[in-house]
Design goal:
The protein is of the alpha/beta class. The protein is built from 15 helices and 25 strands. Strands 15-18-19-14-13-21-22 form a seven-stranded mixed beta sheet, sandwiched between helices. A six-stranded mixed beta sheet has the order 10-9-8-11-12-24, sandwiched between helices. The structure holds nicotinamide-adenine-dinucleotide (NAD).
């Protein structure tokens, strides 16, 4: 049995309490590792280590800090297979997805910010003949990065990389449900000879470790990705302490399909947006709005494609749908399927837990599920389910499509499928979402601002936005 450890001040340390939590493989239901059930004292030790490391790390030239991150990126590439297998074991996602998306993206995050920091320039404002202002951007000190279970190493590094590049020292907390690749990243930090205390990783639950980090007076900023309710709890503690906060929260995203779309590409895109990672991506398009004249044709082609998605052992190369992350999450998603039926929805396909043969007999598998005939404002259509459950909804006019798309309290992402370029712009601008894709989904350029409006969060990550978040401005005005 694997015993994961906290990573404090450059060394692997057991939790001070000596207590561990079981960590389960979702594809089989087996416990495969024990993770530290850390507490406030572990967080205290991590913050102390980060504080001690901060002056030297912040004092390094950006280019030198960046080199450590580029080295980590190379090590992630070299360990692609091992990291992808660990991610699949921990999360239940298809190995093919971990190999082509999760781990390569973790490497890109390190490389992008490791090189990007060298191009991060100060602003200057001239007052002609009177003065010159220039703006220094200083690292904040010790910052916290708290990440969820759906894209474990991908999102963990998405936060850590800009924080470190900007000169901060980090105490990071991965999800207790998927901690394994964070542990492996710590091993790579040792190999990269990252100075001790620059990155500290504390494992454990949100209410113990996450809350202790948010409450710690020496933690100057919190970058959090997770559920909207958790985001509210964090904001309640952090706001009166005047901590910087970046909150990337839930979504209930619309896929808006017009009759003039490129049909085949749209059907393929809508299926991918609905069911990638078993529908457990904050950006997944779980409400598919289709112009009425195309509705029946789309429905038929969509269902046909959904029914051919290969659900199975995540280690098999042809598997497109793996396991949901946990028994508790599976039960939550199943309860939404019951709710959809109670709300009057017509089940078009799926809806059942799947018991596979062999190694995965006790895994948490669920058929891709599609409903129609649900009211636009019902709970199924407005609450985040975060699983392979989507609804089809017809619309008659562009105004109606926008009204349905914007009906939820979330505002993370949307996709629009049309060949009419004017409509593409018009609809994109009218959608209440931080990210809109046209004729594509989840195509990411790491320079672009990433984040949501409404209950989907506060602030933006990515590119300069992330480096700005992890720095404090100081303006210096010099009289000429
Ligand atoms: P979660 O909110 O339960 O947990 C996220 C992290 O916060 C975990 O590490 C958890 O241990 C920690 N945490 C829990 N309680 C805490 C507390 N009181 N104080 C501090 N930390 C605490 O979310 P989850 O179930 O792991 O992830 C799924 C959610 O994440 C979904 O709502 C999804 O939409 C969202 N998500 C959003 C984005 C985005 O970029 N907007 C990306 C991925 C996932």
């Amino acid at each position: 049995m694997l015993h994961l450890q906290n990573f404090l001040n450059g060394t692997f340390s057991p939790p001070i309490s000596g207590n561990y939590l079981p960590n389960i493989k979702p594809a089989t239901g087996e416990v495969f590792s024990q993770i530290p059930d850390s507490e406030e004292q572990d967080v205290q030790a991590a913050v102390e280590a980060a504080k001690a490391a901060f002056p030297a790390w912040a004092g390094l030239p950006a280019e030198k800090r960046g080199r450590y991150l580029v080295r980590l990126s190379e090590l992630i590439d070299q360990n692609l297979e091992r990291l992808a297998e660990a991610e699949t074991m921990d999360n239940g996602k298809p190995l093919s997805l971990a190999k082509t998306v999760d781990i390569p993206r973790a490497s890109s995050n390190m490389h992008f910010f490791g090189t990007g920091i060298q191009h991060f320039a100060s602003e200057a404002h001239m007052m002609e003949g009177v003065a010159v202002n220039y703006t220094v951007r200083k690292p904040l000190g010790v910052v916290a990065c708290i990440s969820p279970w759906n894209l474990p190493l991908y999102l963990f590094t998405w936060k850590i990389a800009p924080a470190l590049a900007a000169g901060n020292c980090v105490v990071a907390k991965p999800s207790e449900i998927t901690p394994y690749t964070a542990h492996l990243l710590a091993e790579l930090c040792v190999e990269a000879e990252l100075p001790a205390g620059v990155l500290n990783i504390v494992h454990g639950t949100g209410p113990k470790v996450g809350a202790a980090l948010v409450e710690h007076p020496d933690v100057k900023a919190i970058s959090f990705t997770g559920g909207t309710q958790t985001g509210k709890t964090i904001a309640r503690t952090a706001a009166p302490m005047f901590k910087k906060l970046s909150l990337e929260l839930g979504g209930k995203n619309a896929t808006v399909i017009f009759a003039d779309c490129d049909f085949e590409k749209t059907v393929a895109g809508a299926v991918q947006a609905a069911f990638a990672n078993q529908g457990q991506i904050c950006l997944c398009g779980s409400r598919i709005l289709v112009e009425r004249s195309l509705y029946d044709k789309f429905k038929e082609a969509f269902l046909q494609r959904v029914q051919t998605l290969t659900l199975g052992d995540p280690l098999q190369p042809d598997t497109k749908m793996g396991a949901l992350v946990s028994e508790a999450h599976l039960q939550k998603v199943l309860s939404y399927i019951e709710l959809a039926k109670e709300e009057g929805g017509t089940l078009l396909t799926g809806g059942e837990r799947v018991h596979l043969e062999g190694r995965c007999a006790n895994g948490y598998f669920l058929q891709p599920t599609v409903f129609e005939n649900l009211p636009h404002n019902c709970r199924t259509n407005t609450e985040e389910i975060f699983g392979p459950v989507v609804t089809l909804q017809p619309f008659d006019t562009e105004e109606e499509a926008l009204a349905y798309a914007n009906i939820t309290e979330y505002g993370l992402a949307a996709s629009v499928w049309t060949q009419d370029v004017t409509r593409a712009h018009r609809v994109s601008h009218a959608l209440q979402a931080g990210i809109v894709w046209v004729n594509t989904w989840l195509l990411r350029d790491l320079r672009t601002p990433f984040g949501g409006t409404k209950q989907s969060g506060v602030g933006r990550e990515g590119g300069w936005e992330a480096l700005r978040f992890f720095t404090e401005q100081q303006n210096v005005c010099i009289k000429i």
